[in-house]
Amino acid sequence: MKHLCFTLITTLTLHSMTQAQTPVPPKAAVKPKELVTNGHTRVDNYYYLNERENPEVIKYLNDENAYVDQMLAPVKTLQDKLFTELKGRIKEQDESVPYKEGNFFYYSRYITGGEYPIYCRRKGSMQGTEEILFDGNAMAEGHNYYQLGGYEISDNEELAIFSEDTVSRRLYTLRVKNLKTGTIYPEAIANTEGGSVAWAADNKTLFYVKKDPQTLLGYQVYRHVLGTDPKADVLVYEEKDNQFYMGLHRSKSKKYVEIVSDHNGVATEYQLLEASQPNAAFKTFLPRQKGHEYDIVHYQNKFYVRTNWKAENFRLMEVPEGKTADMAAWKEVIPHRPDVYLGNMDVFVNHLVLGERKAGLTNIRVINQKTKADEYLDFGEPAYVAGIGYNPDFNTNVLRFGYSSLTTPSSTFDYNMDTKVKTLLKQQEVLGGFDKNNYASERIYVKSRDGVQVPVSMVYRKGTKKDGSAPLLQYAYGSYGYSTDPGFSSTRLSLLDRGFIFAIAHIRGGQEMGRRWYEDGKMLKKKNTFNDFVDVSKYLIDTKYTSADKLFAMGGSAGGLLMGAVINQAPQLYRGVVAAVPFVDVVTTMLDESIPLTTGEFEEWGNPKNKPYYDYMLSYSPYDNVTKQAYPNLLVTTGLHDSQVQYWEPAKWVAKLRTMTTGTNQLLLHTNMEAGHGGASGRFQALKEIALEYAFMLNLVGIQQ
User: Where does the record place the Peptidase S9 prolyl oligopeptidase catalytic domain (predicted)?
Assistant: First the structure.
């Protein structure tokens, strides 16, 4: 994820200034508001900052940005140097590995100086004439932010649905392009989910997900026929439970249009429609049941079902078409294993491929469906990430997969599942003299305070001393079952080459160690996430990987919540913290169901309208637990149009921290007034944000080059 960042200046630099020269931070007006829940009263002095259209609020955010600019001035040269360095490692004129779908090979490419990809295809082979489907650079002209939400090709390969977001609010406008003529059809459908689209087999009917513009939840599926007024589109399905997220796609077999309603950790439900009968009604695959999560792949006359039914770590079943709602007809293919998490699957004419996790690492398992021969691909590194790639063709014995490690750049392979031959198609080219042999990675385990062993993946330049003198950046996320895998980053080299160690703490709340790892880091067990992170920090200091005056922490979004919680718990451990788009006002946000995505989060954090959850959330919510103590140097970022974490959460948090901190460290807030949750949209604009982030940390440990 790319985040906007900024930097601080050191106390030493501040002391060298005269008092008149020292920038003065903005001060948000105090306007107390009482909030009463479950008979308990909280007072929020900065509640009014949620008034997005209020000129006073906009002025305050702009004043904070001006303050950041003043504080950045002493490291502007370093920042510019970092940006040039980061950009210099990227091969500007680059091209993805093509994949074959139908009669075409599809790929994307970048041109020198281009911020956005150009999407292309060639018919028959890569020697065919190039067709440009979408030129991201041309489409982004005139927009401060631009995101192509994806595209979907019709069965006759002549039309493409595509979607665009020019605000960063994740509200996409849907259009259709004729790929033969280049004409874009006149109908434009606003407020859609973007990539959740599907063609019917008739090449004129399409289905899409409509969003509620306020909550940003996809909740309706419509049918549209080309050449008709979108106002006449037919509603074919509506999700009545606002705790569910909804997606839409075409099955790999192309036989079905599939609607999936999912409530993470609670339930799943699929609705199916044969693509050859676009005017028929969708039918339920299996009615939702509390606690039952599943996903499906259609193959010939049956479905493979990945399910947690009587299987916490999931197992694989199969069921014939027409009997899907009868669980007695489900037949087990791969049983549940307590030490292996079944993450995903792909199906080929003669092979079944599984993505699994064991001991915190990803594995790819290939099963020959005729001979039942079973194998795991060998990767030979202590910390890595491997995953099943995009494989649209059933009738092949070649598996496309991706691989990366902390020292190995992102790599794309084809694997012949019959001959066992692995072919490297492309490895990310890192310019500037990169040699993977200059770096080393480690995998260690740290005992958390309750005895659980927490995996930690680390990378550093060979020769880096482990005597407490090295600066170290500790990163984690730890929510929603999202696993933070140890992959490669070319931008990270700028820290490693300056003596930093980079560590990923695979804390509870993710799913690295299986489903239980996630369950033990959510709801009324959420504090395990924070405790794991702090205990890893203490271990890294105690074992002299680093020291408290050189340890940095970083997290974004729910990882920003993590940052807020750990600096309330143990601020003395960290020299500096980067909290990007942080979810820090947990209680107030989860009480407001009008805020985008709130209702879908109840099974992650709890519903604070229920007192046990209110009390527990209140006990760790970063904003509510700011106290009078010395906080570390803090860099906080947000986006005015953020659809995930509203800008006022970090704004309120920084305002409160400034009034409560007993130390002299800098607390800075930067708001991107033109972007949302992901920051800037161009690939080089994102590098400027990373340069700011790195300059912040390097400056604090006295590294100016």
Answer: 488-702
Give the domain extent around 613.
55-87+433-701
Active-site residue 557, yes or no? yes
Same-domain check for residues 330 and 443: no
Q: Which of 233, 532, 642, 670 is catalytic?
A: 642
The better pLDDT of the pair 4, 521 is held by 521
Nearest to 666 by CA among 70, 48, 31: 70
- Give the DSSP per-residue string, 119-171: EEEEESSTTSPEEEEEEHHHHHTT-SS-EEEEEEE-TTSSEEEEEEESSSSS-
The DSSP call for residue 129 is: P
402: domain CATH number is 2.130.10.120
pLDDT digits (tens, 9 = 90+) for 15-28: 333 344 689 999 99
Q: Indicate which residue of 108, 405, 448, 557 is catalytic.
A: 557
Q: Are residues 401 and 335 in the same domain?
A: yes
Catalytic residue status for 642? yes
* 564, containing H or E segment: helix 558-569
Query: For residue 182, which phi and psi values (nearest 5 degrees)?
Result: 85, 0
Beta strand pairing call for 331-334 and 439-447: unpaired
Q: Please say if 532 is a catalytic residue.
A: no
Helix (H) or strand (E) holding 495: helix 493-496
The count of structural domains within the chain is 2
What count of other Cβ atoms lies within 10 Å of the Cβ of residue 35?
A: 13
pTM of the model: 0.87
**Residues 316, 247 within the same domain:** yes
Q: What percent of the chain stands above pLDDT 90?
A: 81
